[in-house]
Structures are given as C-alpha cells and as structure tokens.
Design brief:
It is built from five helices and seven strands; from the N terminus they run βαααβββαβαββ. It is α+β, with helices and mostly antiparallel strands. It has a four-stranded antiparallel β-sheet. A three-stranded antiparallel β-sheet has the order 5-7-6.
C-alpha cells in the first residue's frame, strides 16, 4: 500500500481552473497534448469550464503546496474516464490511482455499472500497465483517436 505525503490535497475540479488544466495537460510525460491541439479537438478552457459547471464532467484535482500535480475527469452521462493527467514528478506516488478512484466512485454513484476509457495499446506506455493493474480490461475496440478502449465493470451481483 502506498502512503501518500500528508502535504497532498484532493478537491473537486473547478470550472475557473480550466486554463491550468490545459497547461498541465501539455506537460505530461506521455500523451502530452498542448493547447492548440486541444482546441482543434474542440477542448478549450471555456468548453471544459462549461462542462464542469453543468455537472456533466465531474473531476478531482491534486495539489501539493499550492502546485497542481494532476487531475482526473469523467463524463457523468456516458461513464467515460475522459482524462487522467499527472506531472512527471507526480508519477509513481499513487496520486493517479487516488484521482481515478475518486472519479470512478462518482460515476458509479451516478448509476454506471460499466466505465470505459481510451488508452494506448503500446505495452511500453505507462498507462497500458497502470489501468490493467487496476482491473481494467480490453474491449477489443479502438476509439476515434486509435486508442484501445478499456472497461471496468462493477460486480452488480449483490
């Protein structure tokens, strides 16, 4: 079991912080996506903020000493984990798992027995082993970005 530093804080994602989320997304070690590319995909600070404010994009953010280390957001309507992003120095500390667990719990509470996400199909990618280690399994499908679709099914048998 990983013991997280006491200096870490977790809080719900806020619409006002979307410019910082976009900035951090471009600084990740693998699958970094900069502001221009996100805008091409229709993801801007304004659109992301609107989704958060509407309640359709619940998320969790981790800070340490005032610095954002990472975040995770999910789609309340579809059950998709939309993004999990960490700064390189936050990798391997258990922060990603905590962020993911918190968003998964929120989507489960919204009624989803099955969650899904797009993930690299390259076994050398950190995300490939991360999600599988946590019980996510391949659906055998790919999404519009050519990422492998993984799913997590909750046991609904009482």
């Amino acid at each position: 079991m990983t013991i997280l530093p006491a200096s870490l804080s977790f809080s719900p994602g806020r619409a006002d912080d979307t410019p910082a989320y976009i900035n951090l997304r471009g600084k990740t070690r693998q699958n970094a996506i900069g502001q221009e590319r996100l805008a091409e995909l229709g993801i801007t600070a304004a659109s992301w903020g609107e989704m958060i404010a509407s309640g359709n994009l619940p998320g969790q953010v981790c800070h340490q000493d005032g610095q954002m280390l990472g975040y995770c957001f999910g789609d309340r309507e579809s059950g998709e984990i939309v993004v999990l992003a960490l700064l390189p120095q936050a990798e391997g500390l258990g922060i990603g798992k905590v962020l993911l667990d918190k968003v998964m719990a929120e989507l489960s509470a919204a009624g989803h027995a099955r969650l899904f996400l797009g993930c690299s199909s390259d076994p050398q990618s950190r995300s490939y082993g991360f999600y599988r280690h946590l019980g996510w399994t391949s659906t055998g499908e790919t999404d519009q970005y050519d990422d492998e679709v993984l799913e997590y099914r909750y046991n609904t048998n009482g």
